[in-house]
Amino acid sequence: MSPSASGKLVVVGTGLIGGSFALALKGAGKVDSVVGVGRGRDNLDQALRLGVADRTYTRDEDWTAELGDAALVLLATPVGEMPALFAAIAPHLGSGTVVSDAGSTKRDVVAAARAALGSAFSRFVPAHPIAGSERSGAAAASATLFRGRQVVLTPLPETDPAAVERVRASWTQCGAIVTLLTAERHDALLSAVSHLPHLLAFALIGELASRPDAADYWRVAGNGLRDFTRLAGSHPHMWRDICIANAARLRADLAAYRRELERIDAMLARGDGTALSALFQRAGAARAALLSGRRGGGDVE
Amino acid sequence: MSPSASGKLVVVGTGLIGGSFALALKGAGKVDSVVGVGRGRDNLDQALRLGVADRTYTRDEDWTAELGDAALVLLATPVGEMPALFAAIAPHLGSGTVVSDAGSTKRDVVAAARAALGSAFSRFVPAHPIAGSERSGAAAASATLFRGRQVVLTPLPETDPAAVERVRASWTQCGAIVTLLTAERHDALLSAVSHLPHLLAFALIGELASRPDAADYWRVAGNGLRDFTRLAGSHPHMWRDICIANAARLRADLAAYRRELERIDAMLARGDGTALSALFQRAGAARAALLSGRRGGGDVE
Fold first, then answer.
1. Does domain B186-293 fall into CATH 1.10.3660.10?
2. Are B261 and A284 an interchain contact pair (Cβ–Cβ within 8 Å)?
3. Using CA atoms, how far apart are residues A4 and B193, in angstroms rounded to an integer?
4. What is the spatial distance between Cα B128 and Cα B170, in angstroms, rounded to a whole number?
5. Has the ipTM of the complex gone over 0.85?
6. pLDDT below 70 — which residues of chain B?
7. Would the CB atoms of B221 and A194 count as touching at under 8 Å?
């Protein structure tokens, strides 16, 4: 197996993530052809026009015939669709085809792959490119989306090391920084740094929108609310799937956060400016650590 | 009184907001000279070098002698410092000097002005330019900061209409969109769209920073957490003052938000994807309303 992803790439879900992956590898000359598979014909036609894919199929067409000689299959759909997709591809995969995904949660995707892929499970490399956006669709795809961004791989003890290297090389060719984690650790970290922030943003915008005078609030909103709304503009079904898949961990993080809000409410109730200042300063210092620390790559554990 | 702010401008607090106000009015040829007053000599020297101010004083120097012939005095400090500043300026104001501020809360600033300014209170025009940033200091000042941004004025029944017009004209000359509200309405709206989002961001980053393995979280953080950290990078003392000044309203909004989180936790607990989807879609629709609605100006009530 070559460390490059030369050969045929099949991308299921030619949206922002799948489309950008295809564009980056085509731009680097690392794939011979790209097959795009999607739900809607309109988005697939756009993928063709933009050069994201060379051939396209809707899900109810005979796309699985493309799998036998594919070098790499990337599932880049909401995680809730993956169990059915693993079941659909399993009988048609070639003996050398590597399978990967771009799901935002990993334990549920690994479980679905294990249940459906049979002997091909050893060639499944779970992956999560951390490059979400409130934009979506093939029109939002960009060959540069992943440059300098983190991609987490969560291979299992039984995963073929050559398959891991092939997927790692593909993401490196996209300009990403690849980190290896267990699926459990990935889901725990992402719950706190991504899933919870999205949930908090949806909650804030949703609560304000339910007020009868919401228009007055929007009118005086500045950058504070704008940053929250960017997250709340993310794809509703994708985030429903993420929240359901990672619900246990997310609820634990939400509980810790609600306790923090309770502590802050007590500071406000007693007018404790000293405690508020200390909290705000700790957060500011953490921000500096985050802005410097997130540039690194490598294996967290 | 001319509708322009020609004459001498005294800015107390030559940071991002005060410095940008001075630069914009100087650039528009609407002030003859700018006097900068601040806590630290280093920032004042930078203000001189950058052309923000023509003369500068630290707070313990004899800056109040500059007030008698000033056309406009702008207090652009954290709101907690304003009671002492109103008391300091009151005896020295000229009979035509208009006073304004740039505080993020308005009821407390109005009360402090009323208590200290005496007959000059009718020439005090409470104002809030909604153009915060995680940057601070004269070095961050820009003549274009306020272009297209909202500035809320909260004049009282006893405020001199000519003073309101002078302050309104100054902000319009900066390129801002001026809206008139009562101080009560301002504080209620800003609690929800600015103070609460900042508090939520400080809480999230602070809670994560308190975990022993925080560095692992920062490493995989993407845009979701980045947007939260921008807010949590805001000035700790400024935000302590805002939270204390607007505590009652902020606690009410925080309570509504915590109830929303409780509802969401119940959705997660019962795996209710339909309810989560509905919430996420409502938030997405509200975002669209916000992005279109916030471009307008005028009087909300």
1. yes
2. no
3. 49
4. 13
5. yes
6. 1-5, 293-301
7. yes
